[in-house]
Request: fold
Amino acid sequence: MKNSPLTFFKALLSVPIAIGLLYPLLNPGASGGVLNELKIFGSAISILIVFVFLLFVLFYALDLIKLLNLVSPESRNVNPNSVWLMFLLPYNFIEDFFIIFHVAESIEKEASINSKLSSFKTFGKVSGFGWCLAQIVSLIPNDFGSIAGFVALIFWYWHWVFIRKVNKTLLA
Reply:
């Protein structure tokens, strides 16, 4: 198992993420944070918001998997099914950086051999790493964390639009 030390490292980095996710539950008096933001809407609407968000994450993950299946096997930096790790809390907060890196590297490798991608000069690292970093900062239970959560959504949308554009180009 050549990746065991890396997996252990990712799991270790997930511990502070888990603490950040649990902090609002352990300290209900803390201001801000996603739980306080959801309280504004009430339980039923909050559950609906979380469900819709997870549905969007599912569609995003499917687009990433599609992209990794569309690039040639020689260009593929990672198994497309590894994208499902995006749903493994709290590990996903760390794993997302690696998924973004591997997807971007796969697009870049494919661009070097596939003329369809010649118009792409960037490969999604800025928007991808932007949303990964902002989602971690969003765990800070104050207004700064709330702003970071909003920024994460913007970067995530920007990255998703890019991924869909690459998919469309590869399918053409």
